[in-house]
């Protein structure tokens, strides 16, 4: 069997590898090259070196979007994972109707980001209009509107992952802890959390990358208003590329910087949380 696998695996791997190369690697490499060019289409690209990259940090909107996105990601990661873990702990207890609650909490994740943005725009603006304000009144309102939307959409999804991790904890460990006199807090701190670290790794990775990459909800909920002050990085890159004539190369350079930033942070987080996982 091993000999057959070694002999024929290229036949099965080649189609997927070819599709991955055509759909991801080749466009990515072309995109990196274009970040060093001035262009309007691929056919008229002219190499200009690092000029596009020097323009990035002179663009005040990019710098603001960078810090705004970083703050948004930190807050959303903490809140989503905290409430998802709390919901998972409650719904793994023997309570009637837990399956219904799990389904209801998960359902917002099935709704598209644009639709979610418009739904919450109507809801939140309806509340804020009571004090003659809207989400576009200030970046603070837009920020917390995006946080509420993100939490509502993703808590249920992360909850399912945490539930799977909690249910995978051997019952013998919990029973042994109780026999040794551990209270609920001791069990949570010394048994549950260490054993659920693989789920924490996955959920932190997903919420971290989703926070940085958020685009459609930002577009639908605030559209960057007022004056691009509630604009996240993905929306800023989109507007630079498509909304500013002659800045296509700068938009592409921003996309490359964005990719490197998210990749470094995600890999660092993954290594950090994996190092704390307990082998069962």
TrEMBL record:
Q: What domain of life does the native source organism fall in?
A: Bacteria
- One matching Pfam family: BPD_transp_1
Where exactly are the transmembrane stretches of this chain? 12-36, 66-91, 103-123, 143-166, 187-208, 255-272
Where in the numbering of this chain does the ABC transmembrane type-1 domain appear? 66-269
Localization: Cell membrane
How does it sit in the bilayer? Multi-pass membrane protein
Keyword list (alphabetical) reads: Cell membrane, Membrane, Transmembrane, Transmembrane helix, Transport
User: Cross-referenced CDD domains, in alphabetical order?
Assistant: TM_PBP2
The Gene Ontology biological process terms listed for this entry are: transmembrane transport
GO cellular component labels: plasma membrane
Q: Which family does it belong to?
A: Belongs to the binding-protein-dependent transport system permease family.
Protein name (database record)? ABC transmembrane type-1 domain-containing protein
Q: What is the lineage of its organism?
A: Bacteria, Bacillati, Bacillota, Clostridia, Lachnospirales
